[in-house]
Amino acid sequence: MIKIARRVRLNQEFLSYLQDLYKDYWTTLTLEGSSKLVHPTVGIRQGVPLSPLLFNPVWDEFLKTLDPGIGYSPDQQRLDGMAFADDLILFESTPEGLQRRLDSLHIFVGARGQAINMEKSFTVSIVPSGHEKRTKMVTTGNFSVLGIP
């Protein structure tokens, strides 16, 4: 998180504030009835109003890696991705292309100490509706990242 703040050239006073904010941050993890107090060392603290400011540069960096010639084209406007805070939307014209984007996203965020929360993730397909001569949206939670469902 501090690396991100440095990358966007926040001044030293603000960096010191962020370090103090995270220095004494502890949270409780609970698994099968057992709880443990832990001190997170990676990631961006949830619920902090600064989170979008700190996370958007990460998404900006990833979105710049996307091929602008690939994506979804409603009304001649090509969309390849959108992001805000820790939410990301990727557009792709084929399931195979989307899979490649998801795999590259997994590698990208992993290198920055983050992970994709598969339980909060899903895909939306915009497909022809056949005889209605329209398109429809189909959602699914069935996808994988690097071959892992």
List keywords for this structure.
149 residues, alpha+beta, 4 helices, DNA/RNA_pol_sf, Reverse transcriptase domain-containing protein, RT_dom
Which blocks of ≥5 consecutive residues have pLDDT under 50? Answer: none
Overall pLDDT metric:
77
The run of helices and strands is HHEEHEEHEE
How many angstroms separate the termini? Answer: 28 Å
Structural class: alpha+beta
- Main beta sheet strand tally, sense and closure: 2 strands, antiparallel
Number of strands: 6
Count of helical regions? 4
What percent of residues are in strands?
15-25%
Identify the overall geometry: globular
Sheet with most strands: strand arrangement: 1-2
How many separate domains make up the residues?
Answer: 1
**Radius of gyration, whole Å:** 19 Å
- Helical content stands at 25-40%
Task: Summarize the model shown.
By secondary structure, the protein is an alpha+beta fold. Helices cover 32% and strands 20% of the residues. This is Reverse transcriptase domain-containing protein.
What do you see in this structure?
The mean pLDDT is 77. It is built from four helices and six strands, in the order ααββαββαββ. It has one domain. The protein is of the alpha+beta class. Helices cover 32% and strands 20% of the residues. The longest helix is centred in the C-terminal third of the chain and has 16 residues, at 95-110. It has a two-stranded antiparallel ribbon.
